[in-house]
Amino acid sequence: MEWVVTFVASEIASQPSVWEQTGSVSLAGLPAAGERVAVLGCGTSYFMAQAYAALRESAGQGETDAWPASEFPAGRRYDRVVAFTRSGTTTEVLAALSRASAPTVVLTASPSTPVASVAGTVISLPFADERSVVQTRFATAVLVLLRAHLGESVASLPAAASAALSSSLSPALSSASQFTFIGSGWAVGVAHEAALKLREAAQVWTESYYAMEYRHGPVSIAAPGWVVLIFGSAPDGLLAELGSTGVHVEHSGLDPVVDLVRVQGVAVELATGRGLNPDAPRHLDRSVILT
Question: Which CATH number is correct for 157-273, 3.40.1280.10, 3.40.50.10490, 1.20.120.160, 3.30.565.10?
Answer without folding.
Answer: 3.40.50.10490
